User: Fold this.
Amino acid sequence: MVNYQENQKDISLKIKKARRLFILSCEIVVLNFLSILPVTAATEEPVLSVVYGQENANQWGGISDRLQTIGVKYCVISLNDVKSGADWGDRRVLFLPNVETLTPTQAIALEDWMSKGGRLIASGPVGSLSSPGVRQLLRSLLGGYWGFSFSDTEQIQAAKTKIPQWTNQTGLFGKVRGGVVIPNDMGSESPAVWNSKDNPAAVVTTERSTFLGWRWGTDTASTAELDNAWLKTTINHYLTALAPSNRTKKIPGGSQSCSTTVAAAPSAQGSSTTATLSDRGAGGQGSRGAQGHRGSSSPSSPSLTPPKTATAAIPRPLMVKPPSSQEAIDQLEQAVRLDVAPNSNEPIDNRQAIALQQELENLIGRVESANLAVLADAANVGETISEEKQFSRDLNTPQSVKEQPTQLASTKLGALAISKDQALAQARLIAKNLPQLIAQKNYALARQQWLAAKTSLWQQFPVDRKLAQPEIRAVWLDRGTIVRAGSKAGLAQIFDRLAQAGINTVFFETVNAGYTIYPSQVAKEQNPLIRGWNPLEEAVKLAHERDMELHAWVWTFAAGNQRHNEILNLNPNYPGPVLAAHPDWANYDNLGNMIPVGQSKPFFDPANPEVRQYLLKLYEEIVTKYKVDGLQLDYIRYPFQDPSAGRTYGYGKAARAQFQQLTGVDPVNISPSQADLWQKWTKFRTEQVDSFVAQVSQQLRQKQPNLILSVAVFPLPEQERIQKIQQNWETWARRGDVDLIVPMTYALDTSRFQRLAQPWIASKQLGATLLVPGIRLLSLPTIGAFDQLQLVRDLPVSGYALFAAENFSNDLQKIFSTTQGRIQSTTSEPIPHRQPFQTAAIRYTALQREWKFVFQNDQRQRSSQKLSDFNNQAEVLRSALNQLAASPSASKLVVARASLSRFQSQFRVLMSQEIKSNSYQVKVWENRLVTIERLLRYGERRVQLRSL
Assistant:
């Protein structure tokens, strides 16, 4: 180390001499060597602000050492002082290292600051401990979110796809201990990935932000050299992207205060340093040379507060109203993210404690519900299962484990018993004792026991027996998987796997990025990746041979795709074959861009009559020439916008002319501040989408009356969705334009999946349309996917849709084959959207089996009269449903609905004893009755019984 420091002094002296002799030449050499722009040299104003907070205080020594090594001059912003957009400062680039908690006010302020031109660099699980609404907003700002951490170091490597030129640098790849960053579907790129299964993203970047998937500035995560390389490269990118005259411009309205002197971290000398180029020189060691600066003080120590060299300016009032995403924050504020770090001793507040306890109780309920379905079905066919009596005890307070105080014997991960009875009893005990552990501030133990209980419960799902009832089991069969299949034989193997797994509906990607998957007489070009065969024609045959439905999945208003252009080695800005031939059909943003800033797809103008006619003609070709069972509209919306940040879309030639004719105003000349006009403009665009859905429904049903029409939609709150993408799918459902609403409720944990799906499942605005939640398989553990499916089966919905076939693993296929796969039978299982009345009858019979099984194996005394009344009413309903299924008619439907309504009204009274012992299961049964009610309502509309 001494020799190294002496060498550094020699290098420093030589540089100083060279500077005196050849100032200009040396400056160029140094700057090139460091890859730092001239604007960041010591003699210039700082262009970077770094956020300091309680969560990175103990890491500040490593962070500041690395910053000094880079040679970038920077300002320090105390997170506690941030109350508005102005408080993020007026420097062009903001660095947010390893900050896991932001308040809603701070997140909204960050969005405001970025909307004025600020660029953000973040590292580590940023915002992961914040409220769900904050995480949702950060996800849009960062282009992705922290998924999960790796337990060991992994290799970061360049992505195999085309990466941004600015990330094609040396020194950016190596061994790091970090986590997976989940990129957004739109506007995000992943230039660096982990060298592990499926190559998940290690770095996600957008036009405005870069998200590093490790804790920057900590030796336990990465080397100083790799950290410095990424930060230098990213800063340079965001500065060189600007015109030279703009590189030193400040963020409008940002505070001009700049504290450039920071405490490196607690040190024996108590010294502070100024982060300038001359402090360390090119060969500085960063945190490796600063072991004496590692935090020995607590985060609350006064010595950790960065001293300021100037008084902060009074924040200027925001000139724009808070962004619409604040509404999402308000709605989700009470929910809690359940990504639980096993060894973290971070405080758990009361709200989080309730959520943890509730989720564990819900998981217990899902495990019991799945096992009850298996046991009841086995009892019906005469199988003997030794756990029947044990299960009946599971419906009550556990007797197999004594209640214990908080100090449990099992305090280590993996220490829980593995039998179902013991796992359930132990999990109940942990759930009960969790508040005590938290009250005693034993946060790490609380988390460890919670995770251990979850792991043990997941192992108790019955994955080796059939438990599914008739339901929609759909999967999106994506273009990439179709291309890789390469032929009918290859496609047949895919359909074989799906059929064995019990999948009954395939959303087959038929129109993608302006190309058709088949040779079309309407479209300009078949996808160039398809050679010498017709996948759609073969897919329809393969599906029908296996009693599966084939629905053509089409991109509606998205006309091209830059990522697809990369695969075809085309110009990134190629708008797709249709817009290339008809440029007047294109849509534009308020800056005149066909592809919105930060996104990757050009869109059609939905107001253009020629566009609508072309799409209708194309869809008519698909549903008449090929015997498809359904059509799914995807991208049935405008691109994402943020009016509060000045990013709007929809200014196609036809739209502008029509709106001007209606109002006398060209929409390019109005802004969100003009409330009345802006509301009219938003309504106009929304109506273009609404009317097209209605037109598709009416025209195609005339050609194919049995066609099932579905839409893939975003599960954002209605008003936020209308403002951002002009997608009002509640209207389509109420009008009966569509049969299935498929919200993309994608989540990596079951609790968040439930929070995303629950509002729409409970919605009264969908009329007779069925709701089918979407589950994304990417990065989802196999048993985690099964857990989400069990939740779907416990909620009042008729099935699910999996995205996508590309991620349908062998492990998942094996579990699906045993739990929902086909049984050798002379009759096929009904599909709810095709045979709703038959589905309702079969599902109700299965429900009856579960009640009977519980009553027969329960030792409690019941009133014989009450039990007789219950059975009589249940049989009346069963008979009514069976008669309707056998021979549908208007009169039989009236009888069935009346019987169901009467039974539902008395159900809780009849189940009063069960509610006390297992309220979750009773709620599941109620949900399944609601599903039957919805199937009857859908069936009535579907077969148009009112006209009989």
Q: What stands out?
A: The radius of gyration is 30 Å.
